[in-house]
């Protein structure tokens, strides 16, 4: 049985906020060769999707900040960016959640198993990721509503692939868990986003000014350099958020549903998927 310790990704007990963040980083480290390349492909696609909107909003690298004379176009850019972030994190949540589930049984899920399509529900995950993106786009247009959507929709992929709930029930399951214990899971997800937003801004601007300050790049390629930097930074931040969603989901189930007790009392021959699935 997994026990608490510095190398354990997810011990079978309630965790503090700091332990949850540590667990997410450990999970990402263990599955980096799957999650980071996948995230990089998605992050590059996101940057090319957002680039025309940035030009339309009159922004410029490296930070692509708001210009007061193009507020409407910039607001649209923010909403689309929030939607693409949500889509990517939800997609990455599929392998991250399956990897996190394996740690509850003291094993590291092999990369080939995470990439194997059988039983992974990738098609449904893609459809739900699109739905989450649409919801986040709509909420982002109303400003503060983004916080509500982001807090409630973090466990859509874990609910789908770990809890094995029907597709239409996954967003409801995610919101239900996020609101338990006074919205603890939702607040932690917002905190994690803030932490990684600060890290992303710091790394992105730091790399930009280091490269341009040392004349390591032709100024005429500034747009491309900026896209590459932000894609690289997001290729780490997005899977980190997906890993946080995965461990937070399982920890919330431990706190509120006694998942740890159920696993400890299970027969040694019981199937992992059956033990983790919730009744329909």
Provide a quick synopsis of the model.
This protein has 280 residues and is mainly α. Helix content is 72%, strand content 0%.
Write the layout of secondary structure elements.
Elements: H1 17-30, H2 32-56, H3 71-103, H4 111-115, H5 122-140, H6 145-152, H7 156-161, H8 170-213, H9 222-257, H10 259-265, H11 272-276
Helix pairs in contact: 1-2, 1-9, 2-3, 2-9, 3-5, 3-9, 5-6, 6-8, 8-9
What features would you describe in this structure?
The chain crosses the membrane at residues 34-53, 73-97, 118-139, 145-165, 186-211, 227-248. Keywords: Membrane, Transmembrane, Transmembrane helix. This is Membrane domain of glycerophosphoryl diester phosphodiesterase. The protein is built from eleven helices and no strands. Helices cover 72% and strands 0% of the residues. The chain has one domain (17-276). By secondary structure, it is mainly alpha-helical. The protein is globular and about 65 Å long. It has helices at 17-30, 32-56, 71-103, 111-115, 122-140, 145-152, 156-161, 170-213, 222-257, 259-265, 272-276.
On the 0-100 scale, what is the average pLDDT? 88
Our count of domains comes out at 1
Low-confidence stretches: 1-7
Q: Approximately how much beta-strand content do the residues carry?
A: under 5%
Helical region count?
A: 11
Compute the number of strand runs: 0
User: What structural class results from the helix and strand content?
Assistant: mainly alpha
What string, H for helix and E for strand, traces the elements in order? HHHHHHHHHHH
Distance between the termini: 27 Å
What shape does the CA trace take?
globular
How large is the radius of gyration?
Answer: 19 Å
Q: Helical residue percent? A: over 70%
How would a textbook summarize the main sheet?
none
Q: What oligomeric state best describes the polypeptide chains here? A: single chain
Keywords: Membrane, Transmembrane, Transmembrane helix
Transmembrane segments: 34-53, 73-97, 118-139, 145-165, 186-211, 227-248
Protein name: Membrane domain of glycerophosphoryl diester phosphodiesterase
Organism: Micromonospora nigra
């Amino acid at each position: 049985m997994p026990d608490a310790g510095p190398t354990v990704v997810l011990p079978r007990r309630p965790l503090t906020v700091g332990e949850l963040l540590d667990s997410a980083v450990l999970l990402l480290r263990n599955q980096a060769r799957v999650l980071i390349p996948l995230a990089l492909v998605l992050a590059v696609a996101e940057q090319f999707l957002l680039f025309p909107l940035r030009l339309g909003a009159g922004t410029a690298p490296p930070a692509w900040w708001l210009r007061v004379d193009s507020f409407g176009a910039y607001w649209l850019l923010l909403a689309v960016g929030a939607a693409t972030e949500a889509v990517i994190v939800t997609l990455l949540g599929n392998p991250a959640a399956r990897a996190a589930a394996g740690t509850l049984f003291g094993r590291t899920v092999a990369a080939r198993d995470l990439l194997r399509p059988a039983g992974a529900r990738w098609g449904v995950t893609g459809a739900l990721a699109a739905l989450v993106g649409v919801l986040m786009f709509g909420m982002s247009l109303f400003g503060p509503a983004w916080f509500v959507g982001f807090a409630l929709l973090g466990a859509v992929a874990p609910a789908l692939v770990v809890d094995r709930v029907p597709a239409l029930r996954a967003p409801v399951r995610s919101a239900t868990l996020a609101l338990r214990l006074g919205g603890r899971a939702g607040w932690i997800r917002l905190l994690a986003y803030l932490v990684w937003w600060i890290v992303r801004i710091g790394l992105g601007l730091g790399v930009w000014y280091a490269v341009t300050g040392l004349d390591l790049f032709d100024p005429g390629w500034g747009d491309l350099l900026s896209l590459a930097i932000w894609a690289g930074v997001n290729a780490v931040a997005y899977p980190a958020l997906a890993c946080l969603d995965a461990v937070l989901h399982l920890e919330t189930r431990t706190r509120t549903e006694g998942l740890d007790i159920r696993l400890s009392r299970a027969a040694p021959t019981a199937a992992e998927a059956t033990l983790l699935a919730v009744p329909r």
